[in-house]
Specification:
The protein has about 475 residues and is an alpha+beta fold. Helix content is about 20%, strand content about 35%. The strands form 5 sheets. Strands 21, 22, 23, 24, 25, 26 and 27 form a 7-stranded antiparallel beta sheet that branches. It has a 6-stranded antiparallel barrel with strand order 1-2-3-6-5-4. The protein has a 6-stranded antiparallel β-barrel with strand order 7-8-9-12-11-10. The relative contact order is 0.08.
Length: about 475
């Protein structure tokens, strides 16, 4: 009997051990070991050497009273140009030009010393110095730059092979994925912060091709131009902007946007973009209904530039562009970037919806004129009080809207449910007066808006088409 009992217990033990080793347990559920936060030590050791500190020497030009003021780029906080404005406001105009220094970040992308950074880090610089992680310093020269995307290529000369940051695929980034930022915040030198991808495709009003990665990895003034790494050690973005109204939020340019432009920047020093020649707007729910569309998708053509590629290709006002060269256009903002990256002279297939029916047109893409580039650069968020972005009227826009002079500002965008939208202002409205005072340039607009406090009302005189109308807007912030 004892032998049978022993054999029974032995057999039972063997079964339990076998099932347990296979991942099967009896009784209370076996808790799965929890994974901790990722260790970044080895990643930092590997990538730190490729990140550089950038210092520039600039000349702040003497500005007479009444001349337009310049603003800090991309919400990066106070700049030397802000200091000039402070001096002007309290002590009068600066007596003469003076030199100043600013700091930023960058990263080496090729062993022969090619460095990627933001354009606003080196803009107007007389001298650019690069400091490596090993404390060596080099004078850099600008190879190419692009203001619209806010990127610049620099070059330093070194006899040896420099450490590089491998470029990744930003399209594969997932929301919630861990990322690492390395840069030179506040001039402190190499600083590492980590967080997750909070969102993709963010539009923050920085320019016509906004498409930012949003992250909660700390990004501060001086981080501009530094790399955003994924956990594989690949640079997936360029840390570019912060927002003054929020903490713990930063924005990076997707590296795929940059990779498409590197060859042009290195060979030509600038970027040549494709041009379609249309003014477009978002397809809202109400517009979709009135146009007989099944979905709120595509880019609605509000106007066609006379003599431009679109007009020559047969696109007309009221067409809804839903596809360009086989790429679906779900949101209006997707179209400009796709067209811009299309080779000049390429005959492209454009699918539109016209009067409820799909139609495929062939358009020969033109070159984006320099004048239109300059016009696009003036679009900026003028104030958060009214929820509108405005653009100064250029000679091209004046001609397009039948204006005698290139004066005033035009509404480029109105946020839904904002004070401006609720009052009735819409994209394309030309603001002639505010509180009975003429608006001839951007400074006039901002001066009138900033006079008002929360609860006060502004009186707008607006030209829409062939008529002029008064609107009252109550300031909510």
């Amino acid at each position: 009997m004892n032998i049978k009992k022993n054999l029974f217990f032995l057999f039972t033990a063997i079964i339990i051990i076998t099932f347990t080793s296979s991942g099967i347990s009896f009784g209370a559920a076996k808790a799965k070991p929890q994974e901790g936060l990722p260790s970044l030590v080895e990643l930092v050791k590997k990538e730190n050497p490729a990140v550089v500190n950038i210092s520039t020497t600039q000349v702040i030009k003497h500005r007479k009273k009444g001349e337009p003021k310049e603003r800090s780029p991309h919400g990066q906080g106070p700049s030397d140009k802000d200091f000039r404005e402070f001096w002007d406001d309290f002590f009068g105009e600066l007596p003469k030009d003076f030199k100043t220094q600013s700091l930023g970040s960058g990263f080496i992308i090729r062993k022969d010393g090619l460095i990627l950074t933001n354009n606003h880090v080196i803009e107007d610089a007389e001298e650019i110095m690069i400091k490596l992680n090993d404390e060596r310093e080099f004078k850099a020269k600008v190879i190419g730059k692009d203001k619209k995307i806010d990127i610049a290529l620099l070059k330093i000369e070194d006899k040896g092979e420099l450490p590089i940051a491998e470029l990744g695929d930003s399209d594969k980034l997932e929301i919630g994925e861990w990322v690492l930022a390395i840069g030179n915040p506040f001039g402190l030198g190499h600083t590492v912060t980590a967080g997750i991808v909070s969102a993709k495709g963010r539009v923050i009003g920085a320019g016509p091709y906004d498409d930012f990665i949003q992250t909660d990895a700390s990004i501060n003034p001086g981080n501009s131009g530094g790399p955003l790494f994924n956990m594989k050690g690949e640079a997936v973005g360029i840390n570019t902007a912060i927002t003054a109204s929020g903490q713990g939020i930063g924005f990076a340019i997707p590296i795929n946007t940059v990779k498409n432009l590197l060859t042009q920047l290195e060979k030509e020093g600038k970027v040549t973009r494709g041009w379609l020649g249309v003014m477009i707007q978002e397809v809202t729910k109400d517009l979709a209904k009135s146009l007989g569309l099944k979905k709120e998708e595509g880019a609605l053509v509000g106007d066609v530039i006379s003599g431009g590629p679109a007009e020559k290709g047969g696109i007309i006002r009221g067409d809804v562009i839903i596809e360009f060269e086989g790429k679906k256009i779900k949101k209006m903002k997707e179209l400009p970037a796709i067209v811009a990256n299309t080779a000049v002279g390429k005959e492209s297939k454009v699918k539109v919806i016209r009067e409820g029916a799909e139609k495929v047109l062939t358009v020969k893409i033109g070159k984006l004129p320099e004048e239109k580039e300059a016009a696009a650069d003036t679009v900026k968020e003028a104030t958060n009080k009214l929820g509108m972005r405005i653009q100064e009227i250029t000679p091209e826009l004046a001609k397009q809207f039948g204006l005698e002079k290139a004066e005033g500002v035009i509404v480029a965008e109105v946020e839904r449910s904002s004070p401006g939208f609720e009052a009735g202002l819409r994209r394309g409205d030309i603001i002639l007066e505010i509180d009975r005072l003429p608006i001839k340039k951007m400074d006039d607009y901002e001066k009138q808006i900033n006079k008002k406090k929360k609860g006060e009302t502004l009186l707008f005189l607006v030209k829409r088409g062939d008529s002029t109308t008064f609107f009252t807007i109550k300031v909510e912030e």
